[in-house]
Design goal:
Elements (H helix, E strand, L loop, with lengths): L29 H11 L8 H14 L3 E5 L2 H11 L7 E5 L4 H9 L3 E5 L10 H7 L4 E7 L8 H11 L3 E4 L7 E2 L2 E2 L6 E5 L12 E5 L2 H10 L30 H32 L5 E3 L6 E2 L5 E5 L8 H10 L15 H7 L7 H7 L2 E4 L7 H18 L2
Parallel strand pairs: 2-3, 2-4, 4-5, 5-8
Antiparallel strand pairs: 1-9, 6-7, 6-11, 8-9, 10-12, 12-13
Helix pairs in contact: 1-8, 2-8, 3-4, 3-7
The protein binds pyridoxal-5'-phosphate.
Pyridoxal-5'-phosphate binds next to helix 3 and helix 4.
Length: about 400
Amino acid sequence: MAAPGNRLALEGGTPIRRQALPYGSHWIDEDSLQAVEEVLRSEWITTGPKVAEFEHAFASLTGASCAVALSSGTAALHAALAALRIGPGDEVIVPAMTFVATANAVVFQGATPVLTDVDPDTLLVDPAAVQARITSRTKAIMAVDFAGQTCHYAELLQISKALQIPLVVDACHSLGGSYLGKPVGSIGLLNCFSLHPVKPVTTGEGGMVTTADPQLAAFIRRFRNHGIDRDLRQRKGDCRYEMVELGFNYRLTDFQCALGLAQLSHLPCWLQRRREIAARYQEEIGSMEGIRPLVVRDPREHAWHLFVIRFLPGSFRVPRQTLFEALRQEGILTNLHYLPVHLHAFYRQRFGTGPGLCPNAECAYQEICTLPLFPRMTDHDVNDVLRALKKVWAHYRK
Ligand SMILES: *Cc1c(COP(=O)(O)O)cnc(C)c1O
């Protein structure tokens, strides 16, 4: 019998934390607030100089020659596929283990996402599975740097080059990471970022595409502005403009870009803090039989967006769902990344996908759990996570 103080919150005991700890969270300091206020008091609150300044800073950070700011990571993915002229009849390789937006972007363009299985140790798309899914209709390969670890790019780039199929990187988790010394943002032909509050840096909502190709960048600039070929507000004299193709309003405001600039200046520090927390988790969890963190591979700099553990089958008296719920009741708001795309109702109905299509992703889904990890976490918060995990582990392990 467990001591009364150790009774799980799920079973009526006292939770480890009264104030729940989220799995991810933003950090906005005084400097950021001031930068935003300054822009809000100025003449340009959208489509002004801060957008270009933020794009410049983002490009230089990622080693890309062009960066285009958009209103969300989803808009960034959509714009990237539009720039590649993906359309009806085309297929795009998409990893099964990702947020639905990666695959949705393909559907926005009327094309078919071909959901592809992942490496069971890292949950990164498996290059051999990518190769096996390619057909004469494949017009792009999307890779997702799951949890912040960069994909197997040596292999993926080789496939992309040999078959002349462009590589689009969903880098929504991996800003600040690298692969063989190459920074995330200069690996794929197009690289897409999210600036949502749980992501490495935030503008509230926001996104970015980086590329070395100025023509693709020019397309995306137009695409985010209704497909209109010039920005009238920036131009004197000539007042004519033309909409040359279908676009959207995917613009990011100037005050958001001011926030983004302030955020970027903190990124190195925040990455360092994420690494510290991840190292602590790895060390402590290493001695907990039945729990295994995702495998980290060389030669990469991990951006540690998420810390994902697996509850190994046969090691616990209850299913993952109960372990997950028990942690949440302790005040540790664990999360699930992700239900594989092909198991979502929309994909089953529209594309006839279902269980059996990507067994590694499906199997992982039964076991995964995301622990809190964000730069503002204190050592005390980290200890709380580990105490709660140990409490639940000790209670339910076989
Ligand atoms: C967050 C995220 C997106 C979408 O970004 P939004 O800014 O929320 O639109 C896409 N792909 C992945 C992998 C993400 O984590």
